[in-house]
Amino acid sequence: MVSVPGSATPRREPASTESQHLREAVPSPPSRGSALSRQRARSAWLFLLPTLAVLALVAGWPLLRTFWLSLTDANIAELEAARFVGLDNFAMVLEDPIWWRSVWNTFSFAGISVALETVLGMMIALVLHQRFRGRGVMRAAILVPWAIPTVVSAKMWGWMFHDQFGVINEVLLHLGVIEERLAWAADAELSMAAIIAVDVWKTTPFMALLLLAALQMLPEDIYEAAKLDGAHPVRVFFQVTLPLIRGPLLVAVIFRVLDALRVFDLFYILTSSSEESLSMAVYARQQMFEFGDLGLGAAAASLLFALIALFTVVYLALGRVTVEEAA
Question: Residue 2 — very low, low, confident or very high, per pLDDT cuts 50/70/90?
Fold first, then answer.
């Protein structure tokens, strides 16, 4: 800048002084103990009270009712004549090998299906995150399996897995993968593979949608800097993308795991409800309505709730999913 003789040249303040002025100009958030913070907390609770009351009525009361029935010998035919038996129903369920078989089926189903859905959902999200012609149509089409009700998709895939005229056996026979028709739904060893395949087909779009939303929140300048540095795309994914979406990824996984642990409709529709192919929810339903033992079925449902709650606490503790990470 050219200085005019006789005029005072304005002095530029140091960068540290300018930064200090900027920090002073920005209002600091109220502390937790301030009156404004307490007022905001009270307002938040007032807005949440109607929702909490509805949740207590819709979810809390049935849960407490189920737990109370688990402590009685309630029968579906004589519900009013129920007597308090303490923890006898829980002991009977825990001594039943069929219950432990259903626990193994449920957790193996949840682990395998959620792992496959996470990997496939990430791949689909990475593809849909790119700019190409017809991206909007592809995003809409990928949600079609998720939009179909689970009962409808289970029935549809049940016909496709039929041992006599199902299209799955026809395709595998033409490809030479199998030599004879397989009873996918009736065979206990094959039914789990069929159930996992249907769940992966239906729920992978949900994982892809959540992960795509997380990818779209990432800043573009990070990838431009990585491209200028000549970093390989695979290295960029594992060292840049994956750490940045760790929080949303863990939230998406826990949503799917909780949904998979309480699975009922796929097992109930696709399998013959045999002892080898029960889930925990199907086991509880079988005890309640097919055998008429509400107390035993309520105990199984209470154990299912306890296992899901325990898994949630352990998962959050190990994954350290905080509000800041999920945001």
Answer: very low
Helix, strand, coil percentages (3-state) for the chain, rounded to 5, are 70, 0, 25
Angle, vertex CA 281, rays to CA 280 and CA 286, nearest 5: 95
CA 272 distance to own-chain centroid: 27
**294-323 burial by CB neighbour count: b if 16+ within 10 A, else e?**
bbbbbbbbbbbbebbeebeeeeeeebebee
Q: Integer distance in angstroms from the first to the last C-alpha of the chain? A: 46
List phi, psi (to 5°) of 145. Answer: -60, -35
Structural domains of the chain, ranges and CATH numbers in brackets: 97-326 (1.10.3720.10)
pLDDT in tens, 85-144: 889 999 999 999 999 999 999 999 999 999 999 999 999 999 988 887 877 888 888 888
Give the Å distances, CA to CA, from 14 to 19, 141, 173. 9, 56, 78
